[in-house]
Amino acid sequence: MPILASTPVSLPEAISVLQQFLSAGPVTVLTGAGVSVDSGIRAYRGKDGRYMNPNYQPILYQELVAPSSIGKKFRQRYWARSYLGYPPVRDAKPNASHYGLSLLQRHGKIGTIITQNVDGLHLRAGAPKKAVVELHGTLFVVRCSHGHEIDRNEFQEMLGRENPGWKAFVDELEASGQQLRTNPDGDIELEGRSYDDFIVPACPTCRVEGREDRTLKPDVVFFGESVPEEKKNRSLAEVASSERLLVVGTTLATYSAYRLFQLAHNNHKPVVILNIGPTRADTVPSDSKGGTVTKLEVPCGELLREVAERMCANLPSDKVTTDILSKLRSSSTAVPTLMGPEMKSS
Hints:
Layout: H1 11-22, E1 27-31, H2 61-65, H3 69-91, H4 96-106, E2 113-115, H5 121-124, E3 132-134, E4 137-144, E5 149-151, H6 152-162, H7 164-176, H8 204-209, E6 216-220, H9 229-241, E7 244-248, H10 255-266, E8 271-274, E9 293-296, H11 300-312, H12 319-330
Parallel strand pairs: 1-2, 1-7, 2-3, 7-8, 8-9
Antiparallel strand pairs: 4-5, 4-6
């Protein structure tokens, strides 16, 4: 019998439900921004999500890559904010959700992790790269319109050299130990700040090759941009080949995520949704052929820590898996400083 979205559930009840679910057959996992909240990266939706700000206006893909002067302004805005927001994402630590899923994966309790997140925290928690599908890309690679790649840390240094005033602000933040509040896509919000003085470097390889269009963007899927065909097809194949789907920390608002839920449900696969707050699937009924939809509104870090410990702690482990278990037990919640030193407006 599924637990309905409106039905309260205690942590012990949720532990029992999830343990039974993970013990019943191959499971593919789909994660979203809610998984990284305990690492100090806030979600887009939910009570404190970025989309709750009525003034929020995302940069669209076509705006970012437009060759016009307007496109240049959008790139200045994006890269200035990303320059400030990248260090907290770069330095973020995996939390209990990441370590719990990694431990479950290494012990064969779950299969592939499909993540909408671009923060790389599943990989840093020990999940093998081949067993993680980064559906919306990664912040740690910068790519130009001709396919040349630059490591994001290297590009961060390039941005700093071109923008010494902004670099001084970042250095001050890091020296003080303070951090600005970071969004899932690795940028921050600056009120009343002009970006007109921010210099965005062109692709150095394109410059050497004499190409005109040298526009750089992070290797992530922007609003208005399609998920790469290879990743879309692999994510669909992973859900199709597994017996059940575990959804963690996502409202399923994006179509790229919701279609994975639809694929599982339409093929009568049981689905467990672990998310606090409404999701797009809340009104989808269970069916009589095994396609149950069960929602657990409990903190995912607490639940995954307990379930991973109970299912994996006494199993034979190698050094890597033992290290993941140790980090799971010691992981804590990060609460970033909301304001750093004042950024002077120009």
